[in-house]
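for the recovery benchmark. tokens below, seq after
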């Protein structure tokens, strides 16, 4: 599915002048009522290692360039969302890394209403022991109707943006719920949100 996405998105960027404008930043993130007693030191976003890396150029834009733009934009948006959530604490003795693997981005090549499906896996890993403290696969989708824009590439791009935004927001919500319900020993304190 990643290959199909990259082919489609390559075409979209060709039509739009090959200037990707991903907007993965999630606006609806608010400070968490709980603080997790973990220090998040690193975020890594990647695609599955078994996915073949093929460069197919359309004008000056290659699949690798597009893939790296998706990964970079996802990482920046995720870091920003986690900062807004105030979920982790820098003073914690236990250090963790977050590994995000983009498993699927399913974008139709041609459609009036564009529905994009995204699946990604989030792993929270203890830096010292390499133990996986949290493992969740998040699946989201978003639809952009035909009347959003006459141009299909704009509908496709907006659909990708909305789906990834939803994916990040769902991950943060799931993470909060997981530690609140199942791992109370990791909850440093509750706080009041004004």
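predicted aa per position
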């Amino acid at each position: 599915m990643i290959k199909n996405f990259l082919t489609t998105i390559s075409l979209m960027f060709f039509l739009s002048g090959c200037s990707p404008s991903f907007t993965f930043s999630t606006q609806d993130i608010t400070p968490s009522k709980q603080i997790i007693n973990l220090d998040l030191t690193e975020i890594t976003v990647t695609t599955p290692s078994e996915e073949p890396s093929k460069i197919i150029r359309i004008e000056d834009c290659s699949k690798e360039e597009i893939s790296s733009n998706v990964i970079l934009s996802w990482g920046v948006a995720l870091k920003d969302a986690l900062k807004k959530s105030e979920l982790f604490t820098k003073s914690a003795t236990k250090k963790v890394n977050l590994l995000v693997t983009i498993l699927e981005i399913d974008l139709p090549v041609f459609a009036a209403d564009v529905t994009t499906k995204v699946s990604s896996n989030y792993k929270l890993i203890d830096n010292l022991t390499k133990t996986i403290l949290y493992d969740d696969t998040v699946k989201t989708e978003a639809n952009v109707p035909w009347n959003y824009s006459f141009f299909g590439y704009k509908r496709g791009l907006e659909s990708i943006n909305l789906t990834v935004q939803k994916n990040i927001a769902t991950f943060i919500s799931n993470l909060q719920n997981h530690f609140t319900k199942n791992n109370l020993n990791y909850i440093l304190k509750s706080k009041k949100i004004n």
